[in-house]
Amino acid sequence: MAQAEPDFFAEKAPLQVLSVTRLAQPLADTPGAVTVLDRQTLRRSGARNITEALRLVPGYMVAGLNGANLVAAYHAPVDEYGVRSLILVDGRSLYSPSYFGGGFRALNAVPIEEVERIEVLRGSNSTAFGAHALFGVINVVTRHTLDTLGQAVSFTAGGGGVADAYARIGWGVPGLAQRLSVSRSADHGLRDLHDSHERVQLLWRADLKPRPATELMFQAGLSEWDAGHGFASNRDDPQRDIGLRKSHALLQWRYADGPDATWKASLSWDEERLNDPSQTDSIGFSFSPIPNIAGLIYHERRLALELEHTRVMSPSWRWVLGGGVRDDSSFAPVLFTTTERVGVRDWRVFGHAEWAPVPRWLLNAGLFAGYRSDTGSYLAPRLMLNHEVAPGHTLRAGLTRAERPPLLFERSSDVRAYINRTPVGTVHRPNPALRNEVLQAQELGYHASLAEGRVNLDVRLYQERMGDFIQFFEHPDKTRQYVNAPGFTLRGLEYQLIWRPSERTELRLNQSFNQMRWHQAGPTGREPPDRLSTVALFQRLDHGWDVALMLHEHNGMAWRRPANAVDSITRVDARLARAFDWGGARAEAALVVQSLGGDIDEFVPDRLSNRRVYASLRLEF
Amino acid sequence: MGLLAGLGLLGLGHLASADLWAQGVAASATPAATAASPAPLWVVMSERNAAQDEALRVLRGGAALPLQAGLWSDWAQWEQLASGSALMLLGARALAAWAQRQPPALPAMPWVAGLLSQAAWAGLPAALRGRTHVAWLDQPLPRLAELLRLALPDRARVGVLFGPATRAWREPLQEALRARHWQMQAAQLHESDGPAELFAALSRVLDGSEALLLLPDAQVVQPSQFQNLLIAAYRQRLPVVSFTRAHVRAGATLGLYTTPAQAALQMLDLLRLAQQPGARLQQQWASQFELDINEPVARSLNLQLPSVAMLAGALMQRNSAASEGGAR
């Protein structure tokens, strides 16, 4: 008898799997400039973590207080800890409200091997995601468990103490698939600094599909990070080792209520504990009002619940409505001078509509409204109009207003010094009068997709006016405090060109030009480079060889104060890799050289990004 | 007619009564009628569905001979077929039945099979295959490779899953792709493989691929897993190229397929060739085709695809330039 035959002429069409509600917004329709780094690009960049890979995003700079705390930030160094760019990993937002705020440590903890793609929206996206998305969103999508079935291991080792290992196992079927991974990442940080660090973590993910229209995703993870901190020459910030323990869990539910409607709910829980032994010493000096907290800086807990509904009303009109609540709290006697948990609750509702009143015109309108238990309400509206002037050419123009309420740390940090439990001074003062900072942005954009998609260009011309800028301030008595400063106006032009002259070659050219004008008098110290560029070439060769060359450059800038300004720098990274079959396993061996031209002062003098050479081997079977 | 009514055939008002088996049987019992008309063209259908009906309409319109048609399961007197001038078999089931029920002494008339896949064909007895003119529904592999090249000019790597029915296509497809500077990332599925193996293989082939090509193999395109298959590719922002219009409607980016009417026209061409004196056995891949693009999906993948007309025109040119009669 004949074999089972696939149905060439199904009379009953299969369920419309990819209905409009499931489809991603095309780049030409997005209400802003978006850079996408897919899995291939991430791998070919040679980056060991997401932060390094974000060098490929226009306007993003990678810098930090040391090599263990590198931050990829937009408009750096205005936003030194990246608190104004929201980091989302599978919809879970990463930030730390009880300390400097950024999600950079958590971002570095996401193994790059598990990332499907990163979508970076440059420019405020608070309308969609709330206060933390003031400068934009780094949206990380990790790989689905069904896409990582089987086993994989990878090893990376080389100069600068680089020693990474990753192992994962994936199993299951479409109804229930799971992945478990364990990884370790370590290096010696920047040259001559006490910033060696090591991270070890365990991650689990499960995807369930109990019915065709219902999907559930669970994630859980544990990580431990130990890092050198401080400077030999600084008595206030001595050399020591700090440690961060993190755990998280995420539950996401998605239900397709017919082809035109979806429901999505997510519940996430994060717990984070930072230890730093420097707050106590042998002579009885301490920053802690209570004894026996064993170096604890903070023990933070975050809970977030969100529900979202998307509906397609007609081919030209769809909307998303949602709401949620976040509860952040922290036990941090050192930071808040209280033995009580300090917390804040944030209620939010949001809506976004996409309407094409006539063909080739698309209006994106959105509003995000929130209420915080400590600082009250905040609002972020946006209006963006996209017009396809000719096939492949889209212009966009829009207005955004966004607000960022202060973090717990910015508003309430109250750090005091004690000797034998007796208060002897104040280090950090709270500021209950701290207001929300407000950003008003105007944007003109152009997106082009030409030559059958071989040439993609996105240009963003913007003016961002920041008022009530929340800024770190040192009083004459040396106490520190966050205050509202008049802010700044930033004008800029950014473009991203991706050109694939052949199916084997990809060229990327990013440039970001900006002009910063502080509204307050006198030097503020932080001056972003007025030009930031990246040129990257990815070339496939015969027999599985692959070459990547990436050049990053910026002109003069000052990270924190004019005294530590640096001049123009150029950094070249290169990667040579070969994919091959190794006894049935798919393998790739790679050699990466970072900072090919030698050690460079990338952002602060004497914090040298050293030339680093490392090799990696990846096996999947 | 009672039998036909029982089979639900009465609703098919467009079928001339002379086409039905009952009439065929009746005709044999009426010598005057038999003597008056030339030997008929018999058409054996596998089942009653829109595709077979469409093919039958085209056959009736294009056949030079009087046509008598019916379901393979309805008729017990296969021997009578020998009295026809030719036989058309629509679908794998009709051909399989013919293989089982044909008289030991094979009639001298030619028979042409169509509306069946190469996969189903490969499962039939070799003796039958050695005597059957056939037009498969499957697209020639060079055409599939050419479609990828034309539709996705900035890409060069495609993931392909092969099952038991398409095992033999692996080498020729790789060759056709290589000739167009495309690389294939492939995995082989076996009869005993379930969804776990299917998705393990899929995750291997999609890693590093820039498109997914679905071949007509029941082990790969399992109806219960089709949704998951399509979503897996979409999650990785990869366009899916498939072999039916229904898949395109469901979310595949591109579909290249042959309609029942096109298949029937090809069968008529084969019949004409087969009826020529000294005719050679004709076994062909689908000669005509249609293309479909799911525009919203393509747009959402940021793909700028050429228009259907342009793609089809370019493929057609290749079609006429290259002889695709047998070579894969």
Largest sheet of chain A: 22 strands, antiparallel, barrel
User: Which percent range fits the helix content of chain A?
Assistant: under 10%
What fold name stands as the CATH topology of chain A?
Answer: Maltoporin, Chain A
Q: Which strand order spans the largest sheet of chain B, edge to edge or round the barrel?
A: 2-1-3-4-5-11
Kindly report how far apart the N and C termini of chain A lie. 36 Å
CATH class of chain A: Mainly Beta
Low-pLDDT stretches of chain A are: none
Radius of gyration of chain B: 22 Å
DSSP strand content of chain A: over 45%
CATH-derived architecture of chain A? Beta Barrel
Q: Could you spell the SSE succession of chain B in H and E letters? A: HHHEHEEHEHHEHEHEHEHEHEHEEHH
Number of strands of chain B: 12
Please, what is the oligomeric state? heterodimer
Explain what this protein looks like in three dimensions:
The complex is a heterodimer of chains A (621) and B (328). By secondary structure, chain A is mainly beta. Chain A has a single domain, classed as Maltoporin, Chain A (Beta Barrel), CATH 2.40.170.20. Chain A is 5% helix and 59% strand. Chain A has a 22-stranded antiparallel barrel. A five-stranded mixed beta sheet of chain A has the order 1-6-7-4-5. In chain A, a hairpin with a 2-residue loop joins strand 11 and strand 12. Chain A is globular. The mean pLDDT of chain A is 91. Chain B is of the alpha/beta class and 328 residues long. Chain B has two domains: 108 residues, no CATH class; 152 residues, 3-Layer(aba) Sandwich (Rossmann fold), CATH 3.40.50.2300. Helices cover 41% and strands 16% of the residues of chain B. Chain B is elongated, with a radius of gyration of 22 Å. Chain B starts with a helix and ends in a 7-residue tail after the last helix. The chains are: A mainly beta (621), B alpha/beta (328). At the A-B interface, strand 9 of A face helix 5, helix 6, helix 10, helix 11 and helix 12 of B.
